[in-house]
Amino acid sequence: MEIKVSLTKKTFRRFAFYDLLVHRKRWKSPVFFALFFSLCAGVCFWMHEVRGAVLLGGVLLAVGLGLPCVYFATFFHSVRLKARALDLEGGRTVYRLTLPEKGDCLRVTDGKETAEYPWQTVFHAYRDKRAVYLYITAARAFILPFDCLEGGTPQQLWALLTARLPAEKRTE
């Protein structure tokens, strides 16, 4: 199966959110930070008779909720800037991925370079509603949007990956 991957800003943004929130689970630290500071602020508000406790509670709550908001706002802004830098506004063909029915390697070419990756070195494959994210390493993935599948269906693509990758390297 050969997939000519054309990325749009929307597809890239969806992958970036998936990568940060699901694959890397980077939502945990800001959420725990907010919960901890909110709990501390609640204790301060509960001790409102003590001089300065309400002010300290307000500061703790502002910091506890403000920093995670800044974290996510910065992330969303950086994704928007990266999509603009990659010129994905109207969609652009980025690479061509060849997933052979038989053979040891999958092949990726971007027009300038070609790389081959043995199937046994693939880190993980995740299936989303609109794409498959094929991680070659924990930090590097190929986005395979379903609307780029010219000669096949999402079910055929997933069946091919199921045949090539063990169950612990696939998440549907």
Automatic annotation (TrEMBL):
The chain crosses the membrane at residues 31-48, 54-76. It comes from Candidatus Faecalibacterium intestinavium. Keywords: Membrane, Transmembrane, Transmembrane helix. Residues 107-151 form the YcxB-like C-terminal domain. InterPro entries: YcxB-like_C (IPR025588). Pfam families: YcxB (PF14317). This is YcxB family protein.
